[in-house]
Amino acid sequence: MYVEMADSKGKSRLHQQIDENLKRVYEEALSEDIPDRFKDLIAQLRAKETGK
After folding, report:
1. pTM for the structure as a whole
2. Cα dihedral 41→42→44→46 (10° resolution)
């Protein structure tokens, strides 16, 4: 029983660490600028929409 509790605490810590890492990576991705090529593509799509 003690081993199971220790194992579940280890998994809990592991899950917490995974959650923290995923949140950190997500926050970093959100703070990145949109690449110029994507901005150009969006501008082209908008120009086509307004040209209809």
Report:
1. 0.50
2. 170
